[in-house]
Amino acid sequence: MPAYHSSLMIPDTRLVGNMALLPLKTQFKGPARGDGVESDIIDEAIYYFKANVFFKNYEIKNEADRTLIYVTLYISECLKRLQKCSSRNQGEKEMYTLGITNFPIPGEPGFPLNAMYVKPANKQEEETMRAYLQQIRQETGLRLCDRVFDPQTDKPSKWWVCFVKKQFMNKSLSAPGQ
């Protein structure tokens, strides 16, 4: 069975490095605006997460796949944090903290996928990429809380938390031991 790939790449999509800067449905400020977008890369990543997380190899077919890979790895990081939360409110606070924490971008030491991503060409592109990834991180955390927490019990769903130990492509966005 092949892995799921992004279907959101269109010919005039703006690139940052070799990563697609796709529109997002979000209230967080950043370079991506998704006015009128029905489905975005975060929806796609959350929808395909449970299937894609089992793959150790992933063929990149377009630049949107690189964005999908990043969001999938970030979802894994989120689930590690959410499993320790006792309520949705605590989970939302944890996701906000994780979303705004300083993080490496492609080309920087500590970024786990430097072999697949191109370093931003200049300072402006670097700032755009950092802002876009932060926007993705904040929105992904918020939407994941909607999916992971059971409204009746206010606890994380075991059907999401069971994927904490799985590593997509044997990679993690966090340093070993975290």
Let me know the largest β-sheet: 2 strands, antiparallel
Inertia-based shape: globular
State the secondary-structure class: mainly alpha
Distance between the termini: 31 Å
Taken in chain order, the helices and strands follow as EEHHHHH
Largest sheet: spatial strand order: 1-2
Radius of gyration: 15 Å
Strand content: under 5%
The overall pLDDT average reads 92
Give the quaternary arrangement of the chains. single chain
Count the beta strands.
2
Relative helix content: 40-55%
Uncertain runs with pLDDT below 50, 5 residues or more? none
Notes on the structure:
- With 178 residues, the chain is mostly helical.
- It has a two-stranded antiparallel sheet.
- A hairpin with a 2-residue loop joins strand 1 and strand 2.
- The chain is globular.
- The model has no long low-confidence stretch (mean pLDDT 92).
Question: How would you briefly describe this protein structure?
Answer:
The protein is mainly alpha-helical and 178 residues long.
Write the layout of secondary structure elements.
Layout: E1 14-16, E2 19-21, H1 41-52, H2 63-82, H3 88-100, H4 123-148, H5 158-161
Antiparallel strand pairs: 1-2
Helix pairs in contact: 1-2, 2-4, 3-4
Key phrases:
single chain, 2 strands, two-stranded antiparallel sheet, mainly alpha, 5 helices, 178 residues, 42% helix, globular
